[in-house]
Amino acid sequence: MRILVIGGNGFIGSPLVRELHDSGHQVAVFHRRRDAGLGEVEQIQGDRNRLVEYRNEFRRFAPEVIVDLILSWGEQARELTRTVRDIAGRVVVISSMDVYRAWGVLHGVEPGPLEPLPVTEDSPLRTARQLYPPETVQMMKSVFSWLGDRYDKLAVEEAIMDDLQLPGTVLRLPMVYGPGDPLHRFFPLLKRIADGRSSILLPDDFAAWRGPRGYVDNVAHAIAMAATCDRAAGRIYNVCEEPTSPELEWQRKIAGQTRWAGRFVVLPREHVPKHLLLPGNAAQHVVASSERIRSELGYRELVESDEKIRRTIAWEQQNPPNTIPTQQFDYAAEDAALARTA
Fold first, then answer.
1. Is the whole model's pTM more than 0.85, yes or no?
2. How many structural domains comprise the chain?
C-alpha cells in the first residue's frame, strides 16, 4: 500500500514508519524538518497548519491511506478531510482515551457518579469540552510541539467520523511509554532508585489506581494494523495493555528490573507530602477494554512485558530529562512523612 504519515518522525511515528516500511509498504512522511533517521522513506516537508498548500505533493504521492498522528483540534481535522478527500481512500487518526467521561470524572470536570468499568468504545464520552486547565495545556505544548491551545480530541473525532465522503478510523491511545517517551514516565521512580532511596512513598488512592498503558512499539503496531486493514474503515478502537495493573504493582515491576532492594510505603493521602499528590478523583479508575481491535483486526502485542520495561529503563537511564523539577524530589519532606509512620 501507499501510506502517507503526517507527523511520522516522533515518539510513536518513528516505530510506525519503520514497521510500515519493513512490511513492504510505500511510505511518505509529512513533517516540518528533513530527518536523516527516516532513511529511504520519502519525505515531504511542510507546515501541518497549512495543509492545503501541499495538495499537489500529496496527489503526486497518491496515498491510499493517510495516517495523521498530530491532530489537535476540530478545525485541523476538517482541514485534513477537505484537503485529501479526493486524494486518499481513508484517513486514520490518533485520539486519546481522555475523550471518555471516566477521564473527565478522574480530572474532576464531570459531575455525577463514577463511570462503570471497563471502558469500551461505546462508553459515554465527556460532556465537558475543556478537560485540562490552560496551564496544563501550556505544559503539554512545551512537550508536544504539535499540540495547540484549542486541544480537543472530541472535536477531532467528530470531524473525522462525521465526514460522509472520506472513511475514517480512530484509535484512542492510552498512556504510552517506551524509548523516546517525551514525558519520561519512568523517570521519577528511576531517579529515586538511583539516588539510593530505601523507601518510596505512594498515596493510597494513587497506589490502587488503575489506568491504561501501552508500550510505544506495540501502539505503533496497532496503528499499522488499522492503516493496512480495510475492515478498520468507520471503526473506533481502544489500544491498551491488558490486564490493567494498579500503580503500586506497576511500579514494583519496574523497580524489580533494577534489582532495587528498597520498599514501597503506601500511606493515607493526608499523610503524604503535597508534591507526591496528584489532582483529581483517583477513585475513578480508567480500565479500558481493547477487545474490539484484538477480535476485529487480530491485534497482539509484539513486545512482551519484561522486555518492554527493560528497554524503557535502559533508554531512561541514558536519556534523562533536560530539566528536572527539583520540587518533585523533596526528600526531606518524604523522610519526615516516613518518620511519622515509624
1. yes
2. 1
